[in-house]
Amino acid sequence: MKLLKDETAVSISVGFILTFVISVIALVAVLTSFYTLMDRAEQTVMRSEFEIHGNDISMQIASIDTLVAVMNNSGGYIGVLEYELSLPDQIAGEHYSVSVVNSSHEIMLQSRDKAETKVMIPYSTNNIAVIESTIFSEAGKHYMRYDPVHRTLEMR
Fold it and tell me: What is the DSSP string of 98-154?
């Protein structure tokens, strides 16, 4: 009975421990949400940049296809046609890959570390075939090359 009514020297220690634990939990929650927001912002930037570069590649494929059609219809001949792709080495501090997927006629851009950043951009051709291939951003300069013998376009 005496132990239940004894209130000496307990409230300061218990109050300090509770305040400390609540402060640590609040700090961890704030830091976790901050890092989550930063990661989402990074992914949004990467997807936006991937869409820009993917649309540029799709437009170049369409331009080469149109050029080949015009030359074939006018009786002209194209030797070797090569276009340099201007792709940055990194986007949002990450390396990435660019793949041509023939089954769906899309260009896939994706960061190596984050699957959430994958972007698929459609392309269309009527006169040439695009060879399925993958290039990596850290490899340096990249080209699209048209082969008039096989009427194919390949990214290197």
Answer: EEEETTTTEEEEEESS-GGG-EEEE---SS-EEPP-EEEGGG--EEEEEETTTTEEE
